[in-house]
Amino acid sequence: MSLLAQPQSMLFETPLALSSGASIGGYRLAYETYGQLNAAKSNAVLICHALNASHHVAGVYAGQEHSQGWWDNMVGPGKPVDTDRFFVIGVNNLGSCFGSTGPKDLNPATGHAWGAAFPVVTVEDWVAAQARLLDALGIEQLAAVMGGSLGGMQALSWTLQFSQCVRHAVAIASAPNLSAENIAFNEVARRAIVTDPDFHGGDFYAHGVLPRRGLRIARMIGHITYLSDDVMNEKFGRELRNAVAGGDGYRYTTQDIEFQIESYLRHQGDKFSEYFDANTYLLITRALDYFDPARAFGGDLTAALARAQAHFLLVSFTTDWRFAPARSREIVKALLENRRHVSYAEIDAPHGHDAFLLDDARYLAAVRTYFNRIAQEVGA
Questions:
Q1: Residue 46: is its pLDDT beyond 90?
Q2: What is the pLDDT confidence band of residue 1, given thresholds at 50, 70 and 90?
Q3: d(Cα 49, Cα 288) in Å, to the nearest integer?
Q4: Which residue in 72, 82, 105, 320 is the catalytic one?
Q5: CA distance 214 to 70
Q6: Separation CA 236–CA 110 (nearest Å)
Q7: What angle do CA 161, 165, 171 make, to 5 degrees?
Q8: d(CA 30, CA 33)
Q9: If you ran DSSP here, which 8-state letter would residue 34 be given?
Q10: Who wins on pLDDT, 255 or 282?
Q11: What stretches of the chain show up as alpha helix (H) in DSSP?
Q12: Which residue, 139, 273, 295, is CA-closest to 193?
């Protein structure tokens, strides 16, 4: 059963100080809520989104086909994060292109789209903006903050920036920072975008064009990292798209599509280039690069996490090579060294990084069990 979702937004006039030293005021945050906030205001759960997702976490929009929320298998009535018990909030991050103020919106100082002038934002900035929204909603403490991938980084940052405001943190398929390899993937994707002739230094809006070629390549690069080798082989293998009759079936072309995996990646790239903003892609991948709470402690993650007071659930997947289980275990180890309450599940799933979005029964059961405990604790 899916909910009927209703987008909302809130305007914040007071400038938000950013990690870069810049600030932004007059910004809007898009969000959705599901379920009811109880009288004690103790059952609120914040869901933080990953790179290309949004505030539309669950449910569908009335009269719109194919409008299901990106984590609808996780959030809803009777689902692991049960909206019959919890008041769930999804927030679109500042700088996004799905309703919150971002590069494609007008800069009030110029009357033109922000474009490349939109200030660089970090995970910590997103958390600070989310905290303002929760204050406006009258929520002083979260029963839980939860996210996958980049969303898991935000959940972790919540426990450090607002340690008294979070009872539980659920970080799935995440990491305490990006490896050099991950930063490299992000950089190649960004170079694909900024070298597209239609990018125009980030001010392509004024030229009436979109850097589709760069976005397509960026998405193809990213998508490769979200899937495991086993899944790619199972779904596509070396199957040809249009084999030539007779001989070995090859068309012997360097320009056209030969293999089904090529067709799939081009399809994903084409779709992405039509709905995602290029400047937003640059901002979000750079926020991923910058996240590193241990940096201020000389790389000592145990020292960095000493501020956290929440209880934790961490989940990883064995075939996720972009955010490998070893990265989650780093967080577990640091929390245990601080004598924090930690539950950890490492799921033997074949799906790679995308597993956090899929219907693995063991994964969903682990989350359900954890949230059942939270419900009992907060009286939900």
A1: yes
A2: low
A3: 12
A4: 320
A5: 24
A6: 49
A7: 70
A8: 11
A9: E
A10: 282
A11: 123-136, 150-161, 180-194, 212-226, 229-235, 260-275, 278-290, 301-304, 325-337, 361-378
A12: 273
Name the 3-class secondary structure at 320.
Answer: coil
112, two tokens: 């033109």
The 10 Å CB-count burial string (b at 16+, else e) for 83-121 is bebbbbbbbbbbbbbbbbbbbbbebeeeeebbbbebbbb
pLDDT at position 4 is 86
208 burial type by CB count under 10 A (0-12 exposed, 13-18 middle, 19+ buried):
exposed
Q: How far is CA 316 from CA 81, 110, 158, 223, 353, in A?
A: 18, 45, 20, 18, 9
Reading the block at residue 345, the tokens are 């599940």
Q: Is 300 a catalytic residue?
A: no
Cβ neighbour number for residue 136 with a 10 Å cutoff: 11
Catalytic (active site) residue 320: yes
Bridge partners (DSSP) listed for residue 47: 90, 146
Is residue 2's pLDDT more than 80?
A: no
Residue of 149, 228, 316, 328 marked catalytic: 149
Identify the sign of the CA torsion 26, 29, 33, 37. Answer: negative
Give, as one character, the DSSP assignment of residue 311.
Answer: E
Per DSSP, what are the bridge partners of residue 75?
81
Maximum pairwise Cα distance, the chain: 73
Span 302-333, pLDDT tens digits: 999 999 999 999 999 999 999 999 999 999 99
Q: What is the pLDDT of residues 85-125, one digit of tens each?
A: 999 999 999 999 999 999 999 998 899 999 999 999 999 99
d(CA 22, CA 20): 5
Helix (H) or strand (E) holding 347, with range, is strand 342-347
**What's 21's DSSP letter?**
S
Q: What burial letters (b/e) apply to 44-59, b meaning 16+ CB within 10 Å? A: bbbbbbbbbbbbbbbb
DSSP 8-state class, residue 259: B
